[in-house]
């Protein structure tokens, strides 16, 4: 019997999210992340949108959710997006504030005490927890919790 091998070039493909209102979520994800609609369907009971950038599919939205995101249940903890600079994080924060998004912490915070990486932690219109972070530039702010990763408990 031969030993099983694991894939060698494994990457995350795209993330699929259930939403309650496709139009509302499309507006949010396009404004915050600059996503382009790559495909969409509007058949009753089967509404969806494929979102990406520069031809690369990143997020799919499926209008089949009811109620809000339940962080206490098994499943997605949060979805994180890396940007190149802390200035881009702050720019996204301004857009989110204009949209009335909820934030877990006030402003940019590091991932942990003394960490250079960090960002903002917020929710989409359905309460799905999201993060936009930069690999450097967040070390000037104190971590909200010194004993655990900021991104793990919000």
TrEMBL record:
Please state every residue range assigned to the domain named VOC: 11-135
Which CDD domains does UniProt cross-reference here? VOC
Kindly provide the name given to this protein in its UniProt entry. Answer: VOC family protein
Entry annotated with the keyword rRNA-binding: no
Which Pfam family name is an example for this entry? Glyoxalase
Q: Which GO terms describe its molecular function?
A: lactoylglutathione lyase activity; metal ion binding
Q: Which PROSITE patterns match?
A: GLYOXALASE_I_1, VOC
Could you name the domain of life of the organism this protein comes from? Bacteria
What InterPro entries is this protein classified in? Fosfomycin_Res_Enzymes, Glyas_Bleomycin-R_OHBP_Dase, Glyas_Fos-R_dOase_dom, Glyoxalase_1_CS, VOC_core
Sorted UniProt keywords: Metal-binding
């Amino acid at each position: 019997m031969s030993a099983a091998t694991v894939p060698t070039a494994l990457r995350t493909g795209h993330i699929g999210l259930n939403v309650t209102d496709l139009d509302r979520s499309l507006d949010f994800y396009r404004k915050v992340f600059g996503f382009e609609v790559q495909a969409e369907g509007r058949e009753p009971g089967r509404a969806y949108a494929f979102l990406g950038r520069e031809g690369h599919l990143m997020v799919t939205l499926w209008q089949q959710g009811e109620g809000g995101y339940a962080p206490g249940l098994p499943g997605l903890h949060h979805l994180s997006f890396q940007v190149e600079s802390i200035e881009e994080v702050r720019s996204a924060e301004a857009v989110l504030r204009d949209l009335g998004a909820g934030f877990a912490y006030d402003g940019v915070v590091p991932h942990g005490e003394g960490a250079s990486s960090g960002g903002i932690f917020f929710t989409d219109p359905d309460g799905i927890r999201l993060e936009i972070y930069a690999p450097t530039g967040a070390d000037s702010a104190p971590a909200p919790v010194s004993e655990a990763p900021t991104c793990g408990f919000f």
